[in-house]
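Quick one:
INPUT:
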């Protein structure tokens, strides 16, 4: 029973509740009265229009209203609209049919402004309605079936709105992948999800099995997979537009469960480790909405998939692996497995000589110590490409912050027996040394950015468009990056 969300010019007569936004500077008795909002009831509930307030009231005509505060009107940006949309569907979830009236919010905006605003609003509606019920024997049915968004007219607006719905759905698809247990979403099952997507959306796809991964000499992926009874997979998925302008490579860490391997995690530490394919999920989520966004560049996804387990012949600390590009790595901690599988993927991406590379990975616990659970870290070998990635993230409403890749820290990865060790000799800066490790596998002349999403791929709480569990972080940034991509030199 999918939720139906559609745009309309005005509020239909037959809805059960209407969601409206009120700004804090437009919350005077006069202003409320002019909009037919019940002044006394709002006062009683202490409603001031402050951001994130919600009040349930009834208007003079007996209609149920859900009034949501959006803060100062000049602060109402796309992010606020995304939040408002999500808060609206959450607050309206116990009604059958709701209308969201955005005429006041959208009217004052310039045309281009309006398209990004409606896109963000639509994303919020879809994201706020997300539930993960696949594993409930008796999922509590959600009352809400229909959302009509009133105040939208004209092709540009309805198109932008429709695109936002697609982007929200793509992010929800990534959430579903992250939320599925590691015992069910095995490497093969994850690869099959990619195949299903590729068939539906007409992408070309290659899926390497164990024998083919051996033949391709993906020594990092094989080393991590050695402790598993499940076969690894390597997925390459490609979107090719008519006369492509450049190629963007997207690499995503696809560890379907991370036990740590022989350097085993604590019980507590592995409770959420089904999320360790959040990078691969973000890339697949991006592909899910790629046709809707229709970038002019070619987009290629590189996704190494395995779990990290500790079967009898698992990779032992001290073992040396040879990565695809010939670099040898001394594995001193089997829990630093993400960089090993990414090393192969970045090597393969580099061989294809794209115009730029982005990788997303739930790579280090340290990133959450540095930036908390709502801000990802981004590192790059190119200031210009870093600017592009940050700008895309900013427009998409996903927060990230740069960390440096200092050349002198590279020595912390010197091994006594191989070209590199997989953990730093030094105690601090774990996110940075992981980034420096990855840089070894990227061509010097290719702009590359690494986004560490270990903190942001998972949320412990619901909050507007963010839902508890897998967040789908990265999908929106990747789509915006593909949309705006212009090849340039490093
Ligand atoms: N998948 C983990 C990182 C992680 C931690 C993701 C917490 C999400 C939440 C990664 O494979 C890992 O175990 N990293 C180690 C690296 C260390 C051994 C150098 C870590 O962060 O402890
Ligand atoms: Mn690990
Ligand atoms: Zn991991």
């Amino acid at each position: 029973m999918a939720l139906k969300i559609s745009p309309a010019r005005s509020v239909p007569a037959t809805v059960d509740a209407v969601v409206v936004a009120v700004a804090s500077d437009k919350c005077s008795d006069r202003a409320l009265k002019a909009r037919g909002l019940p002044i006394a009831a709002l006062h009683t509930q202490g409603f001031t229009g402050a951001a994130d307030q919600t009040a349930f009231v009834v208007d003079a005509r007996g209609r149920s209203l859900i009034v949501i505060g959006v803060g100062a009107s000049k602060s109402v940006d796309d992010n606020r609209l995304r939040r408002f949309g999500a808060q609206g569907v959450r607050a309206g979830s116990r009604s059958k049919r709701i209308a969201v009236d955005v005429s006041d919010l959208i009217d004052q905006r310039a045309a281009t402004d309006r398209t990004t605003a409606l896109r963000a609003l639509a994303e919020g509606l879809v994201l706020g309605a997300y539930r993960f019920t696949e594993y409930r024997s008796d999922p509590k049915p959600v009352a809400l079936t229909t959302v009509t968004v009133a105040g939208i007219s004209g092709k540009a607006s309805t198109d932008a709105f429709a695109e936002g719905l697609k982007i929200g759905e793509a992010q929800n698809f990534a959430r579903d992948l992250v939320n599925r247990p590691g015992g069910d979403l095995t490497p093969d099952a994850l690869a099959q999800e990619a195949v299903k997507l590729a068939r539906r959306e007409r992408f070309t796809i290659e899926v390497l099995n164990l024998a083919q991964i051996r033949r391709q000499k993906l020594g990092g992926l094989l080393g991590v997979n050695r402790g598993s009874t499940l076969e690894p997979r390597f997925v390459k998925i490609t979107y090719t537009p008519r006369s492509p302008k450049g190629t963007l490579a997207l690499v995503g860490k696809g560890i379907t469960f991370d036990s740590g391997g022989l350097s085993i995690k604590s019980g507590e530490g592995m409770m959420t480790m089904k999320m360790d394919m959040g990078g691969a999920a973000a890339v697949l989520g991006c592909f899910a909405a790629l046709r809707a966004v229709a970038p002019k560049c070619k987009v290629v996804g590189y996704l190494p998939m395995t779990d990290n387990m500790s079967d009898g012949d698992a990779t032992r600390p001290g073992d040396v692996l040879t990565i695809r590009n010939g670099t040898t790595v001394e594995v001193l901690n089997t829990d630093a497995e993400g960089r090993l599988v990414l090393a192969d993927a970045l090597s393969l991406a580099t061989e294809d000589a794209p115009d730029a590379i982005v990788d997303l990975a739930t790579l280090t616990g340290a990133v959450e110590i540095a930036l908390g659970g709502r801000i990802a870290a981004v590192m790059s070998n190119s200031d210009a490409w870093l600017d592009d990635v940050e700008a895309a993230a900013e427009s998409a409403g996903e927060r990230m912050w740069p960390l440096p890749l200092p050349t002198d820290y590279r020595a912390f990865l010197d091994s006594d027996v191989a070209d590199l060790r997989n953990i730093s000799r030094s105690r601090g800066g774990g996110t940075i040394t992981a980034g420096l490790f990855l840089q070894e596998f990227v061509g010097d002349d290719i702009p590359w950015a690494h986004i560490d999403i270990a903190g942001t791929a998972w949320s412990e709480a619901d909050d507007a468009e963010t839902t508890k569990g897998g967040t789908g972080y990265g999908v929106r940034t990747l789509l915006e990056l593909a949309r705006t991509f212009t090849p340039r030199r490093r």
